[in-house]
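It is worth pausing here to work through a concrete case rather than discussing structure prediction in the abstract. The textbook approach is simple: state the sequence, then state the predicted structure, then interpret. We follow exactly that order.
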Amino acid sequence: MKKILSACVILLMWVSIAAAATIGDAVEVSVITDNGYTLPFYPAKIRHDLKKVYAEAFKGDHYRIVVRNKLNRRVGVVIAVDGRNIISGEKSWLKNTERMYIIDAYSTNEYSGWRTGQDKINRFYFTDVPDSYAAAFGDQSAMGVIAVVAYPEIQRYEPPRDYSCLNQGMSRKEQSRDKAAAPSVQGRAEALESAGTGYGREEYSPSYRVQFDPENRAVESILIKYEWHKTLCRMNIINCAKTFEHSCNRIWGNDGYAPPPPCRR
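Step two, the predicted structure:
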C-alpha cells in the first residue's frame, strides 16, 4: 500500500512540474508571448543550481522573458538567446564578466528584445533558424536555447565606525544611539530541426548603467530549450494525438471489389 501511495505522489509531482509556467528557485523565469500566453515548461533536468526544461515555440509570436528575483539582495542576470548575449549581441559563455541586467531584491524585470541602444531594443520573435539573429552571424552552436544565469551581488562587510576619538564631548546616551545606527550585514540567501529567435521590430526601452560586483559563482542557471510542436512530438516530450490512418492492404482494403486497371484510374 505504501508503494502505491508513493508512486501516486511521484506521479502527481511530475504532472505539476510538467504543467508549470515558471522555473527557478533563486530567480523565477517565465516566457510570455504578446497575446498573453505563458509557455508551459517540460522538465529535462532539475537540480538545485541547474534547471533544464523544454518549451513549445509558436512561429511568428513575439515574446518576452520575465525574471523575478527571489533573493534578499540584487542579482545580475546574464541572458543569452540562441547563444548570443541579449545586451551585447556577442557570443555568450554565460560568465559573470559579460554584460548583464541587474534586478533589485524581490523585484521582477522583463526582457523583450536585443538591446540595440541605451533606449531601444529590437523584439524577440520565434522563427526558423535561417531567419534568426544568431544565424546571421553564422552561429548555430546554441540554437533554440534561452539561458538565464543569476549572479548575486557580492556582500561586503562594513565594520562599524570608531567614534572613540570623536565622542569626548558626547553623552553616553548619544554614543549608544550612534552605535545602534551602524550598518548591518544582510544574510545570503540535436539532430532535430530547431526553432530560433529573430531580430524584430524596434521599440522604446530605456536603460541605465549601475555599479554591480557579481559573485564568481552563479547561484542558479536556467536553460529553456524551445522547439516547434512537431519536434517536441518526435522527441516524445509532449503527448501528441495521432490520427488513425487506414493501411493500404491489398486484401483488407478493397472491400472485395475488382479495382479498375491501372491505366483507367
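Step three, interpretation. The helical segments are 2-18, 133-136, 172-180, 229-234. The chain is about 15% helix and 30% strand.
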